[in-house]
């Protein structure tokens, strides 16, 4: 066995420095956090050549007492921890006392510092961990640290550094996150002689976000302010429509410290579930405040990883904070007409105007509520005089698809309940319960809504008050069906298929479907193993057309085999997504004016119909003012 040697002090210090200082951005992070802890209200960060040749951090904080300056460069020397008990209540960004010592060992460092209580400041120089000079000097209150020639004495580490521009971008990222976490401090960043960032320091988070990430990002944000069990969550989240292609803009702070937390990321994305497009991720800037005793920040040298005493509480606080903000403040997307060219478009838009010919009784209309032909229903529909006077109501010979759908739901409700031993009163109560869960009312209050037409047999164009709406009929109807499937008890709201549907699957699909029979049941599908690579479907949700059952189950099996979901709840949602998509009216289908109006009313009057289950917006709003401004009618 090789002989064990005690490493010389200089080698041991180099190893320790490597844990803290990996690249210029690490130096900037540690020194800037010291400035924040010192109570500075202004901080300037300047770098040259990506921070490799020159870094300067200047603040107007409390400074360092003259006699303590040499001590500050000794490993584990700190003013923030004096006993083991202090480690359980850490609110400062720095506390280990390793930063200055580690930086001084691998660079040429000098510091100018002065505390308000002392008449003179100190100019101190240290290179490679060795003191070069200590002298009194006249300087303003605060501290300036200059770091030159990083890794000059460790050339092996130099070769791992990237290009100057890459290292400078990493430094900029650090400064940005620190600036946003402390909006009460004015940050200035100078890169190779050019100022690239300046925050106002007005203690307004949105001002810091605006300065750092720009107007286009800040305009998409919704304010979050929530408290749950002594845990506060404050900040901003993006609107679902403005989600991003990566998670790079998911920014979390814990008591002012930037952290990376899988629990916070998971809770954020679950709060946006069924509201963002596939492959998109919500953005946020969230500050989480909790008692120091509930978290351990002494886990990793970079201090970006923390350990919560009760991770579930953090998850719940973030989740409900985001859900609350979205439900209260998310608005429908608005069309920016200012970006539209005022040139005349040569190719016109095909509109199906409201004067479309009446539909014949014998013509089959696609029922976009359940996709069941109206001629299967025998209930007759009458039109009162008030409806006849309304030009946007259906004609007397036009089938009432909505009433027919409601009639079918009631009929299926009867089939779904075992009423052989129940009284009529009990059955009526159950029937009323099903109807209320579906949020369907026969006497909806009418609002002034005018259907102008339909573009490309896909987008409903309608007018209400001072607003013009464009509605994607497939996305809107898909969301409506999905919401209703989610709101009802699927185990009690199924329909027994008169002719069970047999679905033939590939070997892998058959295997995964038979493994998830219980998940299918939770989704309202009674599926049984039929053998030889086939399954048989005996029941499906009431809101689903039995004719769509084969395609729905086949597509679900493809999604399961693709591994798109991991948990039971995710699988149920995926199945309901698929069912809603298949059952919804399709783009390109022709619909009557009455159907379009009924759909438009439900979309406009329902706050929870904003995005389809895949995250696409269902409605775009254009105000009359914005439209008239483009035509010069208003200034």
Write up what this structure looks like.
This protein is an alpha+beta fold. The protein folds into four domains: 9-194, Heat Shock Protein 90 (2-Layer Sandwich); 220-329, Ribosomal Protein S5, domain 2, CATH 3.30.230.10; 374-483 and 587-630, MutL, C-terminal domain, dimerisation subdomain (formyl-coa transferase, domain 3); 494-583, 2-Layer Sandwich (Ribosomal Protein S8, Chain: A, domain 1). It is built from 20 helices and 22 strands. Helix 15 packs across helix 17 (549-561). The longest helix has 19 residues, at 311-329. The N and C termini lie far apart (87 Å). Mean pLDDT is 76; it is low at 14-18, 339-428 and 433-444.
Task: Give keywords.
formyl-coa transferase, domain 3, Ribosomal Protein S5, domain 2, eight-stranded mixed β-sheet, 22 strands, 635 residues, 20 helices, 4 domains, Heat Shock Protein 90, five-stranded mixed β-sheet, alpha+beta, 34% helix, elongated
What is the topology?
Layout: H1 9-20, H2 24-37, E1 42-48, E2 54-59, H3 69-72, H4 99-105, E3 108-114, E4 121-127, E5 130-137, E6 142-148, H5 155-158, H6 164-181, E7 186-191, E8 194-198, H7 205-213, H8 215-218, E9 221-228, E10 231-238, E11 250-254, E12 257-259, H9 262-271, E13 284-289, E14 295-296, E15 307-308, H10 311-329, H11 385-389, H12 401-416, H13 424-437, E16 450-455, E17 459-464, E18 467-472, H14 473-487, E19 494-504, H15 507-515, H16 517-522, E20 526-531, E21 534-541, H17 549-561, H18 568-583, H19 593-605, E22 619-623, H20 624-630
Parallel strand pairs: 1-7, 11-13
Antiparallel strand pairs: 1-2, 2-6, 3-4, 3-6, 4-5, 7-8, 9-10, 10-13, 11-12, 14-15, 16-17, 17-18, 18-22, 19-21, 20-21
